[in-house]
Amino acid sequence: MSKNDWIEPLAYGVGGAVTNFIVDHILEKQFPALGITKQKLISGGSVSGASAATAYALDKNQGYYFAMGALGYTATSLTYQIFNQSKIKGASSVAMEKGAVADDILIVDGVEEPIATKGLFKLVDWKEEPAFDLESTGKFNRRNTPIKRVVLHHGGYDPYSLANIFKGGREASTHFGIGNDKNGDVIVAQYMDPKHQAWHAGYFNKGSIGIDFAFIPTVENRDRYGWPVVDVPSNRFKSIPQVLEVPDEILDATVQFLKELHRVLGLEMRVNRDIEALANSYEDLENSELGDATVIGHHNVSNNRFDVFYVWDRLLERTDPQPNV
After folding, report:
1. Residue 250, CA distances (Å) to 128, 177, 290 in order
2. DSSP structure class, residue 183
3. Angle 124-128-132 (CA atoms, 0-180°, nearest 5)?
4. Residues 86-143: pLDDT tens digits?
5. pTM score, whole prediction
6. Where are the domains of the chain?
7. pLDDT digits over 246-269, tens only?
8. Which CATH architecture has domain 93-319?
9. Neighbouring-strand partners of residue 142
10. How far apart, in whole angstroms, are the C-alpha atoms of residue 15 and residue 107?
11. Using an 8 Å Cβ cutoff, are 323 and 295 in contact?
12. Are strands 111-115 and 140-142 parallel, antiparallel or unpaired?
């Protein structure tokens, strides 16, 4: 085979793969709710089909080379995604804590996974409560990185208020909100499937799940919640000397939900022990001890955000004897 015999097919094949990548990227941005499989099949099918049709009409082999490049890209990227998704699935194969009874449902990758709430909370997903639906907003990206951690935040006055904020003009979203419902009971609101990459922590969205405490614990909201005022347990946020004391029942529910979420995702729960730890970039996070934790706060990845350092010591107390970083 001469040099020219393989250079031309290779060049046009690479062109087909690049073209498919561009179409795939456009579909990801414009139609994120399609899901990766449909996006890949549509992009691969459209590019390869158009290329083959052009080759047939013009009797030019270059079009077939383009088609093969597009199909090769589709097959490779789908295989990679399926391999990565397998790392975050398999909830049913992970045993529950001894004595725990499944009494609620968590949706992961479109599958209803049984979880044990121990009576500490009720999980309400967007299918049960349309007010919690952030799936239809399209405010997320396709997840290409396996889930490695949870980032805790706070926002909104309650789970309904938080959903309305994300449904508004703000380009932000999260997966879950923990707070009180209209009857005062603790609920975990599931706003979207973790298979989507929500917009909750900037560069740190990659490989993470966003969970918000659905309340604002600043002192000016004491009348709204009726919670006591306590001193801030950190020297890093001197401009916020006091916050409201989050009720035990919310923290107990949070820890139980985190344990079940980790079990479903097949992750070992490791809560960051250093309240003052701060990563300035995703690379900084991955290459530090903080990157080994599976539960971190927004304050650990943003110097300007104080959520949720004010409960960190109490979370650590409740996660022992779970392995912690």
Report:
1. 21, 11, 25
2. T
3. 65
4. 544 444 445 677 667 889 999 999 999 999 999 999 999 999 999 999 999 999 998 8
5. 0.75
6. 3-85, 93-319
7. 999 999 999 999 999 999 999 999
8. 3-Layer(aba) Sandwich (3.40)
9. 196
10. 39
11. no
12. unpaired
